[in-house]
Amino acid sequence: MSWKRNYFASGGGAAGGAQGLVTPRTMTSIAPSKGLSNEPGQNSCFLNSALQVLWHLDIFRRSFRQLTTHKCMEDSCIFCALKSIFAQFQFSSERVLPSDALRSALAKTFQDEQRFQLGIMDDAAECFENLLMRIHFHISAETREDICTAKHCIPHQKFAMTLFEQCVCNSCGATSDPLPFIQMVHYISTTSLCNQAVKMLECREKPTPDMFGELLRNASNVGDLRNCPSNCGEVLRIRRVLMNSPEIVSIGLVWDSDHSDLAEDVIHSLGTCLRLGDVRPPHTHLYLAISVRTFTGVQSPSLEPIQWINL
């Protein structure tokens, strides 16, 4: 992939061709930058990664700041711990902050499941999703996670992607029952992402600014096949339709192993411009231009803002 790597490194493709589409953020919208400590044996990098993503999301940070009431769980209250660390991000003069309070609250909350325990490494993507679900619990505990419509519930109002999937056979006309579901993070295999990037660049003269959305769609569709509902012998690709327009779209990159050698190729495959309709067929065309950040399930810094625009 060296030729692809050199292309993106030189400023071409999605990053270079998108100039003029990305609206620069004002200095007042940029959150102060501070680090989070991770002493030997703490193994808190997974939590720190999720924290940095949430802090650097302007929409989340500002909305969370406005929340004042919640169902408190005292020493295992993730809401209180998150409020505390956000206050330190905003007002502390220290350049490196401890995440111990949130680490402890997370461990106590999931003690029965033996997840996110002190000193034990865990998954950053799962931590990110569980932090969102715990915020839902603290502020909208009376509403189920899969049907929450509370206006003050940041996770569901800002992050939740409402989709339904269905199989339709063009040969016999059979259709499967539509399956509705809510998704906080759209996961894509890094192996599929890199393989599709190579295929796409091999069959065109040069990369285009809108290639990243097409790349994500192709990568997410790999292996997404089902047998015909009437067993006519056809193998069908699952159709998924996005029913809403979330303000924040989180893309989770799934690594096939703990020691993947694809990190550099993945970074160079990421674009800076994305038409949301290219990723998932929308139900409506009412999408706004929103600047968001993505994250990966591995230890890495926050990525640069990505501009999401409608077709």
Give structural notes.
It comes from Takifugu rubripes (Japanese pufferfish). One of its GO terms (biological process) is protein deubiquitination. This protein has 12 helices and 13 strands. The protein has 311 residues and is an alpha/beta fold. It has 2 domains: 114 residues, Cathepsin B, Chain A, CATH 3.90.70.10; 134 residues, no CATH class. The strands form 5 sheets. It has a 3-stranded antiparallel beta sheet, with no helix packed on it. The protein is globular. The two termini are 30 Å apart.
What topology emerges from the helices and strands here?
Blueprint: H1 2-9, H2 13-17, E1 35-36, H3 45-56, H4 58-66, H5 78-91, E2 96-97, H6 100-109, H7 124-140, H8 154-159, E3 161-166, E4 179-183, E5 185-189, H9 190-202, H10 211-221, E6 225-227, E7 235-237, E8 239-242, E9 250-254, H11 263-269, E10 273-275, H12 276-279, E11 290-292, E12 295-296, E13 306-309
Parallel strand pairs: 1-2, 5-9, 9-12, 10-13
Antiparallel strand pairs: 3-4, 3-8, 6-7, 11-13
Helix pairs in contact: 1-11, 3-7, 5-6, 9-10, 9-11
GO biological process, one term: protein deubiquitination
Protein name: Inactive ubiquitin carboxyl-terminal hydrolase 54-like
Pfam families: UCH
Structure described in brief:
The chain has 311 residues and is α/β, with parallel strands linked by helices. Helix content is 37%, strand content 15%.
Query: Which H/E pattern describes the elements?
Result: HHEHHHEHHHEEEHHEEEEHEHEEE
How helical, in percent, are the residues? 25-40%
Strand-residue fraction? 15-25%
Biggest pleated sheet: 3 strands, antiparallel
Low-confidence stretches: 1-28, 281-311
| Gross morphology | globular
User: Whole-number radius of gyration?
Assistant: 21 Å
Extended strand count? 13
| Structural class category | alpha/beta
- Side by side, the strands of the main sheet go 4-3-8
- In angstroms, what separates the terminal alpha carbons? 30 Å
Report the average pLDDT across residues.
78
Our count of domains comes out at: 2
GO molecular function, one term: cysteine-type deubiquitinase activity
Keywords: Hydrolase, Ubl conjugation pathway
Domain USP: 34-311
Protein name: Inactive ubiquitin carboxyl-terminal hydrolase 54-like
